[in-house]
Amino acid sequence: MFSAEKNAEKDTEKPGTQGNGNFVIGPDYKIAPDLTDQGNPKGKFFEFSMPLKDSKIFPGDDKTLDPQKPVRETRKIFVYVPAAYKDGTKAPILVTHDGPSRMDLVRHALDNLTISKDPERRLPAFIVIGVENGGNDGKGSERGLEYDTMSDRYARFINDEVLPGVLNNKEIRAAYPNIAFTDDPWGRATMGCSSGGAAALTMGWFRPDLFRRLITYSGTFVDQQDDDAPEEAKYPLGAWEYHSSMKLIENSEKKPLRIFTHVAENDLRANDPEETYHNWVMANERTAASLKAKGYDYRYVFSRGTRHCDRKVFEQTLADTLIWMWRGYQPE
Question: By C-alpha distance, which of 210, 191, 183 is closest to 147?
């Protein structure tokens, strides 16, 4: 859709440090009012499909795939354009993984907070794009290939194929003839849970020229990259390398990123020893510590009494997460 060469660097944000740092919530939870239907004007929702075989980046026939793990023939794309969006303006976007995932909560947040009278709790009118994974899970799966691989491949797929697919969709074009997305990477956010959370971090890590606002819940920062992936040569432990002895985050030049992370008290394999490279709690706590040590704008939430990708965590935190994530954004 656009390249680093075409995109002039924009680092003029001054979001401040409000909301940064480590937080513990629970064990009691309730849904935030901003994530409920308050009767405000609704936007428009669209759904269409993209055949995997038509993709140049993820056609569904990668040599690392396990033939016992089915691959989808088509992936669904879900799009929500908030009522506050004005056709013809270059909209900021939020790409969510495992679509539609928590899009119902994001839609309520947009309906309520794009028109908030409190400037500290107002969201820009971003367009949400929920992208279904390619199928199955874990090593050898299409989903794992897309989400758990340490490369820029998935960021390129979203940028080069999904976003143009949305802009060229006939139904969407009929409703918004002049719809457009911002080229400003600070106007491009991504969110996921589990391996979708790993995908969100990896998209920004490898392509900060494309995506800079990253939201991960129960992030799979563990060794789940395909064992025969070419990326194993440089990142043998997959996303575990973000915080492993390699200290990828701490030993790399600081990138222009804003990062939210979360883990649940009873997240996956919470009692596993380090040598398994599969303890989600350990992985997320160490990732947050690495972000802090490197001086990133980061927010880390530990949720007591909860499990992997627990909906009640989203219901309590997502409005505040989105507000924090978009702090400092300057629309075009």
Answer: 191
Q: Is 314 exposed, middle or buried (0-12, 13-18, 19+ CB in 10 A)?
A: buried
Contacts of 265 (CB under 8 A, 6+ apart): 26, 281, 302, 303, 304, 305, 306
In b/e form, how buried is each residue of 282-291, taking b as 16+ CB within 10 angstroms?
bbbbbbbbbb
Q: What is the rounded average pLDDT of the residues 249-270?
A: 98
- Distance CA(299)–CA(261), nearest Å, equals 6
Give the angle subtended at the CA of 157 by the CAs of 159 and 249, to the nearest 5°: 85
End-to-end CA distance of the chain: 18
E strands present in the chain: 21-25, 44-51, 74-81, 90-91, 93-97, 127-131, 180-181, 188-193, 213-217, 258-266, 297-307
* Contact (CB, 8 A) for 171 and 78: no
How far apart are alpha carbons 307 and 264 in whole angstroms? 5
Q: In the structure encoding, which two tokens stand for residue 29, read together?
A: 């939870």
Return the SS3 of 47: strand
Tokens standing for residue 94? 């939020």
3-class DSSP state for residue 231? Answer: helix
* C-alpha distances out from residue 228 to 147, 149, 154, 244, 245, Å: 15, 11, 18, 20, 22
Kindly state the average pLDDT of the residues 303-315: 98
Lowest mean pLDDT among 8-12, 28-32, 144-148, 291-295: 8-12
Q: What does the pLDDT read at residue 332?
A: 77
Residue 43: predicted pLDDT: 98
pLDDT digits (tens, 9 = 90+) for 72-112: 999 999 999 999 999 999 999 999 999 999 999 999 999 99
Question: Are 130 and 93 spatial neighbours (Cβ–Cβ below 8 Å)?
Answer: no
pLDDT, mean of residues 52-78:
98
CA of 182: how far to CAs of 1, 7, 284, 315, in Å?
11, 10, 31, 28
